[in-house]
């Protein structure tokens, strides 16, 4: 065998220098290109991909690259797009899923939740990034638990998913929920032998939880402040304290924090704000703020006669939930889509707004659309009052809505598929990329894909085909910044202050501690 | 109801087809019911339908019209149409334009030899005339051009005729006839010609002899020759034919209005601009498409939920569609290399600091320069104003209404609340008041530029265009016609 093999080999080797030198070169070039492309992909890949998946991730990418290299040309490019499951679909959930150990990397998976046509991941230009806001990409949402570090406590895991799907929405709610989940995580923690709780807990136990939460959705300002407080608290613990005492102490402090800075504060703010609601007021509010809701309900219980206008917007429709709860409480409520804003502002006597955070230059960061509401109200001489706990006050400054923002998955802007016959089909209620649109959009995506392949005349593209159009972007910002001039007053637990006093309160409340 | 439309979705094209078959009264009834049921909506379809309907009304076979009877007939029909859907202002605009055509034809015919544009009171006017001629502002086509063209009610201290609309103007002194071109007038003309034409004005025809391109009226040709031949032609036939010609010009104007507006696209859109627009207006799409051929820009497109978002999505993805039901679509902007970013309406304030221009398409434009546009436009315009972003409004002259917005709430139409919250949610729709306005009123202060098929104008100039196109006595169609004595 060997002898037979040898001459063949020798002849081969004799020929090789001539033939395969060129071939080798070609192959080397191809490899290099593949590696470069993979590197580019990796650079584009977000940092938030948990370290555990990196290896699998790369592996997958090179395979995708290989797959793509096999299929060149336009006709097959679609397939090539389909195979690596849409990268930018709402974030990295799919990549991470594939990166999970249970799935062999070769098989392209179609995540049911990913309803859109495949994005052109492989061409250099990312179809989904709005360049103006490229610093806010990639979008962070997480539909499942693939690739999560093993250190993350189950309570935090659950919380992360709830936050990602907007079941827990609103910065106070998220802050409280996060602290409560951390309590459980801390209770479950045991200090390793060589180190002490204050030193070890934060960096090795809390950090993975925080990173995980961040991968589910960017942290709210209130959550950031709470985490800073918590870290400070833990680090300043007495290292000689026995572990269970330290843990109990931390948990009690967390309870106290939640109680003092959110629960009681909300009551105080509501009591203060409800004085602004007088008989025969017309209160206008936008989207859903827990504290504004509380204020309104409290004022109603006090017996004040007033009515409420709720302005709502796509895609979250939070205002609808607020209007429902007000309606159930027996209030006279009016519900208006955002386009009706100009019409109802004239009737309003007071505008109450909630906040995501108050910035140190007096500006308000709140749900996108708030700035328009405040602007309109200001022009109509209707006072605008912001109710905001001090835990949401921030040291950041921003001049426009582009520097500090959060981009939500563009898929949230998609409507449920429109049946062709009825042009008046009501818009679908907002769902996220996670809960997805179930089977129906999957169906509409399929014919949509075909449509984008041919030259479409028979079938009109729907918004579900947006990924197949190279120059189309969907932008779904979550926040906007309201200039300080439009805000009359900010009510926090330290009293009613003008927006210019925000940095003072911030120093007092968040940094003085 | 005429049976010809049974079985089809009622719409503009269906209506136009049925016009050929039905008799006039049935057609009018059909149109009224389409308007009432909002099966024809938006300015352009309504304007087109009204023009066709009025053409049929005027062209009624075997009917001999004299001017006053024709005016009365058109006024009657117009009143009924406007009453069917008062907020659809394009209907009223077209009716008034047609009335203007009729009056002008009538005047021309009654004074065939003298200068009919400056009817009768030409000399008294020049004698009473106190204000100096303002030749630089009047084109040769403006009825106000030249000294003699000033209606003497302007001297009597009355406010600008176009603005004081809602009053009963039945007894107003006459205005000189509109010039023979019934298509839109160019408001700006070379300054020199009007002085020249003052000197020449005894010959009514001469200012018309060299009309600027694009506003040529075919009517001017035949009539002088006809008259020259010798005024023997019975006036009634003349009126009918000339009015029909005038209405046909109106129809042509409606056809080309978007193209004319789009002609100025390259003047206004430049490279690397970021433009904001909203709703699925054809006019805006055409405007942007024209610019897109030569310039690269970015477009933020607000989707106008809940009334127009589906059409907007379809327009962005597939390109705008021509009139009603035609299968041809223009190319979508994305296919021309323009980056289009779809944003929800709540997000218009956020990127405004980066936006260079806002382009809006109105539903109707009012005489003082304010406009009615799709709901959400007011928020956009206000945000643009705060950031000092220019707001450009694209509108054909047919949308320009002589109505002054005394009560802006009256002008807003409300739409279907089930688009906001479907009726299946019974508890919610029962207890909560859902409001879904279709239009927003945008004040003239918020608009920087109007681009019409006659070119670009500041909002403060629109009253002039109104004056050019509508007769004072037609503005209130409910007024009694003090017909014979006062020549309109």
From TrEMBL, chain A:
Q: Which UniProt keywords apply?
A: Cytoplasm, Initiation factor, Protein biosynthesis
* UniProt biased composition (Basic and acidic residues): 30-46
* GO cellular component annotations of the record: cytosol
SUPFAM superfamilies reported for this sequence: NagB/RpiA/CoA transferase-like
State the compartments where it is located: Cytoplasm, Cytosol
Q: InterPro entries given for it?
A: IF-2B-related, IF_2B-like_C, NagB/RpiA_transferase-like
Where are the compositionally biased (Low complexity) regions? 68-93
Give the span(s) annotated as Disordered. 1-126, 415-457
Q: Which GO terms describe its molecular function?
A: translation initiation factor activity
> Assembly state and interactors?
Component of the translation initiation factor 2B (eIF2B) complex which is a heterodecamer of two sets of five different subunits: alpha, beta, gamma, delta and epsilon. Subunits alpha, beta and delta comprise a regulatory subcomplex and subunits epsilon and gamma comprise a catalytic subcomplex. Within the complex, the hexameric regulatory complex resides at the center, with the two heterodimeric catalytic subcomplexes bound on opposite sides.
Family note: Belongs to the eIF-2B alpha/beta/delta subunits family.
> What is the recorded name of this protein?
Translation initiation factor eIF2B subunit delta
Organism of origin is Friedmanniomyces endolithicus
Automatic annotation (TrEMBL), chain B:
Q: Which GO terms describe its molecular function?
A: guanyl-nucleotide exchange factor activity; translation initiation factor activity
- Name where it mostly resides: cytoplasm
Residue ranges the record marks as coiled coil: 240-267
Q: Where in the cell is it found?
A: Cytoplasm, Cytosol
**One GO CC term on file:** cytosol
Keyword tags: Coiled coil, Cytoplasm, Initiation factor, Protein biosynthesis
- Please report which protein family the annotation says this sequence is part of: Belongs to the eIF-2B alpha/beta/delta subunits family.
Q: How would you summarize the oligomeric state and partners of this protein? A: Component of the translation initiation factor 2B (eIF2B) complex which is a heterodecamer of two sets of five different subunits: alpha, beta, gamma, delta and epsilon. Subunits alpha, beta and delta comprise a regulatory subcomplex and subunits epsilon and gamma comprise a catalytic subcomplex. Within the complex, the hexameric regulatory complex resides at the center, with the two heterodimeric catalytic subcomplexes bound on opposite sides.
This one is known as Translation initiation factor eIF2B subunit beta
Native source organism of the sequence: Friedmanniomyces endolithicus
